[in-house]
Specification:
Chain A: Its main location: membrane. The complex is a heterodimer of chains A (306) and B (269). Chain A has 306 residues and is mainly alpha-helical. Chain A has 12 helices and 4 strands, in the order αββαββαααααααααα. Chain B is built from 11 helices and no strands. The chains are: A mainly alpha (306), B mainly alpha (269).
C-alpha cells in the first residue's frame, strides 16, 4: 500500500494536465450528487415541519431545533427554558467517546511504540496483525465482543470456573462495555499515526538526554512524547470523531440507559414515530461539531508544519 | 545500539501491553469462531465439535433469506468496488499527474469527505436525499450509496502507489511518440496494477461490511448480510449467526491478506 517515499524523486507531474477536468469529472459528479447534495438537503429538511409517520411537510419551521434546545413545558406553550434531555445525550456521547479515546491511547501508544522499535522487517507484520481485525465487519466484531462479555459468556465462565471470581462480572449494558466496544472498533486509527511518528523519531535525541543523566521515563515524557505529539493528536481525533457518532457499540453493548447520539438519530428514521426534521437537525449539530474539531486539528497541523 | 537493560528504546511493560492488545483484538473473534462449531443449540454449553450450524445456514429454515442477502451483498460489493476503483484511479491521475491547479486541494478534500463525515450523518443525508427526489429505496439506492463511500478507500492505496512511480516513465514513452492515452494505458496503468488491486480489495471489503448506511437506504424486505445479521442478533445471538459471521470474517481476512501480500511483494521489487 505504502512505499512511495522509497523511490524518491518527483512523483507529481503535469503529464495529463489537459485531461484533468475529464479525469476528475466522475468523482465530482458522484460525490457531488451522493454526498454534497444530500448534506445540503438534510440542512433544508432540518428546517421543515414534521409529518407524523416519517417524512416532512414542505413548510418552514424551527420546530426541530426548538425541540432540541427548548423546554416548553407539558403543553408546549411556556417560554423557552433550556431542554437538557438531548444536550445530555450529546454530553454522554462526548464523554463516552473521550473515555474510549483515552483507553485506545493507553493501550495503543505502547503498542505503536513497541511495533515501531522492532527490526524493520518485522514491523509490517506487526502492523498487519493489529489492523486485520479492523477489516472484519464492525457488526460481527461488536456482536463477538458482546458474546464474549455477556454474563453467561466465555469470559465469565472462565473467571468463575477457575475460581478467580465467585460471581460473574456484569459488563454488558454498562458504560465500560460501550467504551470497550468503541476501543475495539477504532484502535488501528490510534496505532497507525503514532507508529508512523515514532518510526520517524530520531533516537539520538533520547541518547543525548540519557547522556545528560535523564532517567528513562523522563526521556519518554520530556523528549519522546513532545516529538511524536502530532501522531498522538491525529490518533486521538481519528478515534474520537467516529466514536462520537457511533451506533453499533452503544446499541448492542450499551443497552437503553447508555443511549448515544447515533441511537437518537437512528430512532428518528427507523422507528414508526420518527421525526425526520428533528433527526436531520441532530445530524447537523453532530456534523457541525465534527467539522469544528477537524478544522481546529487542520489549523494546528498546518501551524506545526510551519 | 546497546541491548537489553541499557537499550534506551525499550520500555518495560510495553511488550506486555502489546500482547494484551492483541489478546483483546483477537479473543472475541476466536471465541465466536470456536463456538460456531459447537454441536449444542444453546450458545452457553459446549457439546462437542459439529458442522451442523454451517449446514443450517445453507439448508436450514432461514437459508433462503441468508442466500439472497449474501447474493445482494456480493453483487453490490463487486459493482461498487469496480466503479469506485475506476473513479479513484482517474481522480488520482488528475490530482498527481495533472500539474498544479486551483481545484486540486478541493478535489482531494471532496474525495476524502466520506471519511470525515460521521457514518450516521451520511446515512441520514442519503436517505433524505433519495426521499426528496422521490427515488424508491431498494438495491439501487444501496449500490449508489456504497459507490460514494468506497471511493476514498480505493483512492488511498492507488494514490500511494502512483506517488511511488516517477513521471519519467510516461515521459519517456511520449518521447518515443506514444500518445498521451497510450502512455496512460500502456505505461502508467500496468505500473499501477498492484495499487489498483489493493484499492479494489479494500473498497470491496468496506462495501461488504457496511451496516449503518445500508440499514438506512435499503428498501423494505431488501437485506444485505450485515442487515440480515443485525436483524437476527436483535432476537439474540444464535449459533447459525456465528457460523455466518465466521464465514464472512474468513472472506474479509483472506482478502485483506491478499491485499497486504500484493503490496508487500510490490515493495520488494
Amino acid at each position: 500500500m505504502a512505499g512511495g517515499a522509497a523511490t524518491g524523486g518527483s512523483s507529481t507531474s503535469d503529464t495529463y494536465a489537459e485531461a484533468r477536468t475529464w479525469l476528475l469529472l466522475p468523482a465530482w459528479v458522484t460525490l457531488g450528487i451522493l454526498v454534497l447534495a444530500p448534506v445540503a438537503i438534510m440542512l433544508v429538511y432540518s428546517f421543515l415541519t414534521k409529518e407524523f409517520r416519517g417524512g416532512v411537510i414542505w413548510e418552514f419551521s424551527l420546530g426541530a431545533y426548538d425541540q432540541f434546545f427548548c423546554n416548553r413545558g407539558l403543553f408546549g406553550d411556556e417560554p423557552c427554558s433550556i431542554e437538557w434531555t438531548y444536550i445530555q445525550i450529546f454530553w454522554r456521547s462526548i464523554w463516552q467517546a473521550g473515555a474510549a479515546t483515552l483507553l485506545s491511547l493507553a493501550i495503543g501508544f505502547p503498542t505503536a511504540y513497541f511495533i515501531a522499535t522492532r527490526p524493520p522487517r518485522q514491523r509490517t507484520l506487526w502492523v498487519f496483525l493489529v489492523t486485520i481485525p479492523y477489516w472484519v465487519n464492525l457488526l460481527i466484531r461488536t456482536v463477538s465482543m458482546k458474546f464474549l462479555l455477556r454474563d453467561e459468556g466465555p469470559l465469565n465462565d472462565f473467571l468463575t470456573g477457575t475460581g478467580l471470581l465467585s460471581e460473574p462480572l456484569a459488563i454488558v449494558n454498562t458504560n465500560f462495555a460501550v467504551q470497550l466496544g468503541l476501543f475495539y472498533s477504532y484502535l488501528p486509527f490510534m496505532v497507525l499515526p503514532i507508529y508512523a511518528a515514532v518510526e520517524r523519531y530520531n533516537f539520538a535525541l533520547s541518547e543525548a538526554a540519557s547522556d545528560l543523566y535523564a532517567p528513562r521515563w523522563t526521556v519518554l515524557r520530556r523528549i519522546l512524547l513532545p516529538s511524536v505529539k502530532p501522531g498522538i493528536v491525529a490518533g486521538c481525533i481519528l478515534v474520537f470523531v467516529p466514536s462520537l457518532g457511533s451506533f453499533l457499540a452503544p446499541d448492542l453493548l450499551g443497552g437503553a440507559r447508555n443511549f448515544m447520539i447515533g441511537s437518537l438519530i437512528e430512532e428518528q428514521f427507523k422507528g414508526n414515530a420518527g421525526n425526520w426534521p428533528f433527526g436531520a437537525a441532530a445530524s447537523m449539530i453532530l456534523l457541525t461539531m465534527v467539522l469544528i474539531i477537524l478544522l481546529i486539528f487542520a489549523r494546528q497541523q498546518a501551524k506545526a508544519e510551519g | 545500539m546497546a541491548k537489553g537493560k541499557y537499550d534506551l528504546r525499550v520500555y518495560p511493560g510495553f511488550r506486555a501491553i502489546t500482547l494484551l492488545c492483541l489478546v483483546i483484538l483477537y479473543s472475541p473473534l476466536i471465541v465466536v469462531m470456536v463456538y460456531s462449531f459447537n454441536a449444542s443449540p444453546s450458545i452457553t454449553n459446549w457439546e462437542g465439535l459439529s458442522l451442523r450450524w454451517y449446514a443450517d445456514v445453507f439448508t436450514g429454515p432461514e437459508s433462503a433469506k441468508f442466500k439472497s442477502a449474501a447474493r445482494n451483498s456480493f453483487v453490490i460489493a463487486l459493482i461498487a468496488a469496480t466503479v469506485a476503483t475506476t473513479i479513484a484511479t482517474l481522480s488520482a491521475t488528475a490530482i498527481l499527474r495533472g500539474g498544479k491547479f486551483r481545484l486540486r486541494t478541493l478535489s482531494f478534500g471532496l474525495i476524502s469527505l466520506p471519511l470525515m463525515v460521521p457514518e450516521i450523518v451520511t446515512a441520514v443525508a442519503t436517505l433524505i436525499f433519495f426521499n426528496a427526489i422521490g427515488f424508491d429505496r431498494g438495491l439501487l439506492t444501496i449500490l449508489l450509496a456504497h459507490i460514494a463511500f468506497c471511493i476514498p478507500f480505493a483512492y488511498l492505496p492507488i494514490s500511494a502507489r502512483m506517488q511511488g512511480i516517477e513521471a519519467t516513465y510516461e515521459q519517456a514513452a511520449m518521447d518515443l511518440y506514444a500518445t498521451r492515452r497510450q502512455a496512460f494505458t500502456r505505461v502508467l496503468l500496468p505500473l499501477m496494477a498492484p495499487g489498483i488491486v489493493s484499492g479494489f480489495i479494500l473498497a470491496f471489503i468496506v462495501s461488504l461490511d457496511d451496516f449503518i448506511i445500508t440499514n438506512f437506504v435499503k428498501g423494505a424486505g431488501v437485506e444485505t448480510l450485515p442487515t440480515a445479521i443485525f436483524g437476527a442478533v436483535k432476537q439474540g445471538i444464535k449459533p447459525n449467526i456465528m457460523a455466518i459471521s465466521t464465514m464472512l470474517l474468513g472472506v474479509s481476512v483472506v482478502m485483506v491478506t491478499l491485499s497486504w501480500l500484493i503490496s508487500r511483494k510490490d515493495r520488494k521489487t
